[in-house]
Amino acid sequence: MTSAVRPRLQPIVLLHALPLNSAMWRSQAAALRARGHIVLTPDQRGFGATPLGAGPPSLDIVADDLAALLDERGIDDVALAGCSMGGYVAMAFLRRHPGRVRALALLASRATADTHETAAERLRFADLMLDETLRDQVVRRTAPLLLGAGTRARSPHLVEEALAMAETASPEPVAWAQRAIAGRPDSLSVLRATDVPAVVVTGAEDELVSLEDAARTADALPRGRLVVVPGVGHLQPMEAAAQVTGLLTALLDDAVTADRNR
Length: 262
Known about the structure:
Layout: E1 12-15, H1 26-34, E2 39-40, H2 59-73, E3 78-83, H3 85-96, E4 101-107, H4 116-129, H5 135-142, H6 149-154, H7 156-168, H8 171-182, H9 188-192, E5 198-203, H10 211-220, E6 224-229, H11 236-239, H12 241-260
Parallel strand pairs: 1-2, 1-3, 3-4, 4-5, 5-6
């Protein structure tokens, strides 16, 4: 690991959801950079300008990609925020690179492994992404459902933005990521060992991660707290941009305070 002097303000990494890209964090990245934070918003394997590579589907590979990026930048530890797939990558990073996370935000993510039924659904979706006759209609049908019903009604421009990102994603990386997520292990024990300032965020209208799932995730974190955002669904950084920015700002302040008291 590269040795580096920790900057005055904690660097933060923002990990995007599937099948979107780092642009979903645009609002938070701009606000946090304006406060002086180093903000990294990497596109994960196969998304944006990042190549998929030849490795088998595994969130561990994506977590190791992040570790390599931090080493390249000379950053020893970070605050880590992940939404949906990004949250699952964050938990893989905690498992594989302990001690490098100073604060944690998990949005629209569950700490438990998929049930057999949920994993099977992901694998079926992965197959559909590789079916040229069905792919486009599946994306158009499912991508808007990542946003809450309230968001879809009052902010159609966000539906269009999410759909545009989803349609831009190549099918192979989407299928690869779905298979990687389906194969992830339970992370409750990893979270129980993660004694850092932490927040778990869920949308009251999230159709993919239940309030019970989010509460269980928050309860596993020694310093975790649960925040339920009303009127939004699975993509809280887009649907409730200002509120998520505020939560991340408070989390980073908590990390600085905790670091000074160590």
